[in-house]
């Protein structure tokens, strides 16, 4: 039977080759794709608003008579059309216009237009509004419908997408969309059928409750939201299923490498580390690829666990790749691992985007020949020219920085043939449990829920930046007493270049004000070698104070550093602050974290810094963050691109997370439904999941 999936968009009137190509950029090829290109919001154009009632920022329809239309020269030439109705005036301003438009909008013409109110020279203005001259009568209140607003790409405008969707809807009667949800689920949650839901969101009937639609809470929208969340969950489970359909090299614990490593450590593993190690050891010895996430708070000792997993792999004669999200962190892992493994006779290789020429060739050769048993680096490890000899374990540190796609790219580099590498993902816990379960549905989870003994709590102090002098003095005292300190400059949303400049300026200023101290500086724009040297000097105690951008956020480990100053903490997320603070409190000394904010703080800002002051438990802080900021922000989807939804909104729709998580495994046994749902919602993006 023909389905909407098989009907090309070119059957629609007005869709030629050029438009089809534009639509393809939106992932739209078939009529079904088009119908799943869903409005992400609505505009209420059902009522004409009196001009006298408009406020800045309103998005509204107004109607009036043209009083005058002038060409205005100003900084940019524009056409300024003044409309009036019985209550007031409004200016429509066009920077691009043609002669016909200008003639049409002449004095006395009746115009209805739709736009967003902005303040202008001549009163309130609409820039480039959609407008109609001599408009037809407005539909009566009972007939008016909301106007859907669609995601766009270059080369296509709202009205075009709207009319294409309306055309596509006419095919729905003959070719209904397959309903992949089991009837039992639809009944349980009282959800409308899929065709009905799709038709409604593209073309909401006049009697549909406006407020529900505007908020995305209409049952038709919720049906689609749930389906989308379910499709994402299924795609993760499917990735897992596909990976585990392949075999892995079973890495039986043989030899004495782990024991020799543990004997050389100056401490004993915590109970939690041992527990997690048992789980990993068990996974690795299976002929099935391990897919394990190790969550553990900052400082809980994930690196040692990673090293033990690496040793089990090396002991079985295979290779390990360890990947970290930043150059500094990767470099530090490299130094740590080198210190631990070289004495055991193990060779390591280092690779980042900045390793070029001869050193790169040498590293690649050592990896390809198997001479290097461990390769450590940044995402440069994904690159095509990296060939492994016998890769059997991939360790990814701080995976929330990577997208799921990158993680999957590495597994293609497995032992060769049909064998897939084992995967160990390590993350601090910036994600509350419920969200984590859904974001990491493809992974088994272990938690290191215990800090090494003897950790002193970090005292956190929140003060305004008007007390900068006191803070500087505190740094001086700590360093004179033999401690070391970090000073973190933040400037989010500005360019990296600006961040680095700010850090440079701060370092200069501090060096001047603290002439007794040796001040160092690290930021993202330094060469890898410079960064490594600076970090090394700080680690060796040659520098007292390290001024840094947030590049030091993750992983950096210098136990003698017991004071960290964070400027403008109000600009950072709680998880990030918690990570930064975790740079101290690693040694014997009492440690301090000074959060030096720029007043005034919002209510929200106050609550967040207070949460940080009151707790040192990453889970508690993450939960608090969730409470204060909502899940969308906490997951930081925009930055990581980890999960991008068409309709679903973690905040509004969190009620679905749990039911969807429970539902997904039950559906997995029905590949039609699973594939149908994934293709429908993730479309081209599912290709990464192909094996
Ligand atoms: P994270 O989980 O944040 O990556 P690390 O692995 O960097 O933590 O460990 C933090 C510090 O704690 C390091 O200096 C590490 O050597 C030390 N450490 C790890 N495990 C233990 C332990 N069981 N006892 C004492 N110190 C430990
Ligand atoms: Mg770490």
Automatic annotation (TrEMBL):
Keyword DNA-binding attached: yes
SUPFAM superfamilies recorded: Nucleic acid-binding proteins (SSF50249), P-loop containing nucleoside triphosphate hydrolases (SSF52540)
Superkingdom, taxonomy of origin: Bacteria
InterPro entries listed in its UniProt record: ATP-dep_DNA_helicase_RecG, DEAD/DEAH_box_helicase_dom, Helicase_ATP-bd, Helicase_C-like, NA-bd_OB-fold, P-loop_NTPase, RecG/Mfd, RecG_dom3_C
Reactions this protein catalyses: Couples ATP hydrolysis with the unwinding of duplex DNA by translocating in the 3'-5' direction; ATP + H2O = ADP + phosphate + H(+)
Occurrences of domain Helicase C-terminal (ranges): 481-627
Keyword tags: ATP-binding, DNA damage, DNA recombination, DNA repair, DNA-binding, Helicase, Hydrolase, Isomerase, Nucleotide-binding
Signal peptide: none
Record Pfam families: DEAD, Helicase_C, RecG_dom3_C, RecG_wedge
GO molecular function: 3'-5' DNA helicase activity; ATP binding; ATP hydrolysis activity; DNA binding
Keyword ATP-binding appears in the UniProt entry: yes
NCBIfam families: PRK10917.1-1, PRK10917.1-3, PRK10917.1-4, PRK10917.2-2, recG
Family: Belongs to the helicase family. RecG subfamily.
Protein name: ATP-dependent DNA helicase RecG
Gene label: recG
């Amino acid at each position: 039977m023909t389905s909407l999936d098989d009907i090309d968009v070119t059957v629609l009137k007005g869709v030629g080759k050029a438009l089809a190509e534009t639509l393809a950029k939106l992932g739209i090829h078939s009529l079904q794709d088009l119908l799943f290109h869903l409005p992400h919001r609505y505009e209420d154009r059902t009522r004409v608003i009196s001009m006298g009632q408009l406020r800045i920022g309103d998005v509204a329809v107004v109607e009036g008579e043209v009083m005058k239309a002038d060409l205005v020269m100003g900084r940019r030439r524009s056409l300024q059309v003044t409309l009036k109705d019985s209550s007031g005036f409004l200016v429509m301003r066009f920077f691009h216009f043609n002669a016909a438009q200008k003639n049409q909008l002449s004095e006395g013409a009746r115009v209805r237009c739709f736009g967003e109110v902005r303040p202008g020279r001549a009163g309130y203005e609409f820039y480039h509004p959609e407008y109609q001259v001599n408009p037809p009568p407005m539909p009566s209140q009972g007939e008016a419908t909301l106007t859907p607003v669609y995601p766009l790409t270059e080369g296509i405008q709202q009205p075009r997408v709207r009319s294409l969707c309306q055309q596509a809807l006419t095919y729905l009667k003959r070719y209904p969309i397959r309903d992949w949800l089991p009837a039992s689920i639809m009944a349980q949650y009282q959800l409308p059928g899929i065709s009905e839901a799709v038709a409604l969101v593209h073309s909401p009937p006049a009697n549909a409750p406006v407020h529900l639609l505007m908020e995305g809470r209409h049952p038709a929208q919720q049906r689609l939201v749930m389906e989308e969340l379910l499709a994402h969950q299924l795609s993760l489970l499917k990735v897992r299923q596909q990976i585990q359909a392949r075999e892995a090299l079973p890495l039986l614990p043989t030899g004495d490498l782990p024991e020799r490593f543990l004997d050389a450590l100056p401490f004993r593993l915590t109970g939690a580390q041992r527990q997690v190690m048992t789980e990993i050891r068990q996974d690795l010895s299976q002929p099935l690829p391990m897919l394990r996430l190790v969550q553990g708070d900052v400082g809980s000792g994930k690196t040692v666990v990673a090293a033990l997993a690496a040793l089990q792999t090396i002991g079985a004669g295979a290779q390990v790749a360890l990947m970290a999200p930043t150059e500094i962190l990767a470099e530090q892992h490299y130094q740590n691992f080198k210190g631990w493994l070289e004495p055991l006779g193990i060779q390591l290789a280092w690779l980042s985007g900045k390793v070029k020429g001869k050193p790169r060739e040498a590293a690649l050769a050592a990896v390809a020949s198997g001479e290097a048993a461990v390769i450590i680096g940044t995402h440069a490890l994904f690159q095509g020219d990296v060939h492994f000899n016998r890769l059997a374990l991939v360790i990814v540190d701080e995976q929330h920085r990577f997208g799921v796609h990158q993680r999957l790219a590495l597994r293609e580099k497995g032992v060769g043939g049909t064998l897939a590498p084992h995967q160990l993902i390590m993350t601090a816990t910036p994600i509350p449990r419920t969200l984590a379960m859904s974001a990491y549905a493809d992974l088994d989870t272990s938690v290191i829920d215990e800090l090494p003994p003897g950790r002193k709590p970090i005292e956190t102090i929140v003060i305004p930046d008007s007390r900068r002098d006191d803070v500087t003095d505190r740094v001086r005292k700590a360093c004179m007493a033999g401690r070391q300190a970090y000073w973190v400059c933040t400037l989010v949303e500005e360019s990296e270049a600006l961040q680095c400049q700010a850090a440079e300026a701060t370092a200069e200023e501090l060096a001047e004000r603290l002439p007794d101290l040796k001040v160092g500086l690290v930021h993202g724009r330094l060469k890898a070698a410079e960064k490594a040297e600076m970090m090394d000097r700080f680690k060796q105690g040659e520098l007292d104070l390290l001024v840094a951008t947030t590049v030091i956020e993750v992983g950096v480990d210098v136990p003698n550093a017991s004071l960290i100053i964070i400027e403008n903490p109000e600009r950072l997320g709680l998880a990030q602050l918690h990570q930064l603070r975790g740079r101290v409190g690693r040694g014997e000394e009492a440690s301090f974290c000074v959060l030096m904010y720029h007043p005034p703080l919002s209510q929200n800002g106050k609550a967040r810094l207070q949460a940080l002051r009151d707790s040192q438990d990453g889970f508690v802080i993450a939960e608090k963050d969730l409470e204060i900021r909502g899940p969308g922000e906490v997951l930081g989807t925009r930055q990581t691109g980890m999960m991008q939804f068409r309709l679903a909104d973690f905040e509004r729709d969190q009620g679905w997370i749990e039911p969807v998580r429970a539902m997904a495994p039950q559906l997995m046994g029905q590949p039609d439904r699973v594939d149908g749902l994934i293709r429908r919602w993730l479309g081209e993006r599912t290709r990464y999941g192909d094996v």
